[in-house]
Specification:
This protein is an alpha/beta fold. Helices cover 41% and strands 21% of the residues. Helix 2 packs across helix 3.
């Protein structure tokens, strides 16, 4: 159950339609992460896409962020950021997670946060809010939407 503080987290506020990817399929998890990083970096020009991708992939090597619900939450804490940034991909066809877990990925929510200690607690709260919101029924609902605008609007609910 979300605490009052967590319930105030507006996940939709992190996502604009320009940072939503709706795909019938994707070749692999790394490619999908790269596409989401590029979407974020278009709005955050201080970020180097290659560096951000490397940091996210390094974090993924430690432990997969794919949950059994079909949500994958690759994330990293970045010195260059002063606020949270995110992008989301909704996949019509599940993508296998190559980490050995074989959990299917239906939604990938790339989450980037500032590396400053003051943001750490909120970082954890956002991760918790993502896990709480993205239950299988919600993921199926997103996969049935037709446009990135619809997805962004549903995330804002």
């Amino acid at each position: 159950m979300l605490s009052n503080e967590q319930s105030k987290i507006n996940l939709g506020g992190l996502i604009s339609p320009a940072r939503v990817l709706l795909a019938d399929s994707c070749p692999d998890k790394k490619e999908l992460i790269l596409k989401l990083v590029q979407a974020v970096c278009r709005d955050y020009t201080q970020l180097d896409p290659a560096d951000v991708t490397a940091q996210v992939l390094k974090r993924e090597e430690g432990i997969s962020t794919t949950l059994d619900t079909g949500l994958s939450i690759p994330h990293a804490r970045l010195e260059e950021l002063t606020d949270f940034a995110a992008a989301v991909a909704v996949l019509r066809q599940p993508l296998g997670d190559p980490s050995g877990s074989d959990l299917p990925i239906r939604v990938m929510f790339l989450f980037l946060s500032p590396a400053k200690p003051v943001f750490f607690q909120k970082h954890l709260q956002v991760l918790s809010a993502l896990a709480e919101k993205f239950k299988p029924g919600f993921i199926e609902e997103l996969a049935g939407l037709k446009t990135v605008q619809e997805i962004a609007a549903r995330l804002a609910d």
